[in-house]
Amino acid sequence: MTVADVHGPIDFVLIEFPEDRITGGATRALMDLVDRGVVRVLDLMVIGKGADGTLFMVDLTEPSAKRLGELADLAGARSGLLGESDARAAGGAMRTGTVATLIVYENTWAVPFVAAARESGGEVIASARIPATDVMAALDALEAAG
Length: 146
Known about the structure:
Elements: E1 10-18, H1 25-35, E2 40-49, E3 55-58, H2 84-93, E4 98-106, H3 111-119, H4 132-145
Antiparallel strand pairs: 1-4, 2-3, 2-4
């Protein structure tokens, strides 16, 4: 087994923005994570939901996508994992008059750890994502009780 045969955990995130605010700090932070090898973007969609509730896709390869700044640099992140049904599901979670990025990414920081665990005979037998808001609420409750 080589490190190339090992992958880090794969996650997705849907981040909603007011229609005119999709560029900026969030995109720069994502690009920084990609540039530093912390994550690898496998698939990315930009989905809009008009005031009338109509969903639309933003084609990052179109010249008009340049208005999205560095986000348009990820136009090639199309693994095929995301499809139209995912866009519809994401749209169902969105408010009208917004734009969202649906991102599937690999946590590449974990690859050396996963490889070392596998080389030692270990296998991941359970994994879950705990929302940060849930952890913070639990910690606040513990602090209040203590």
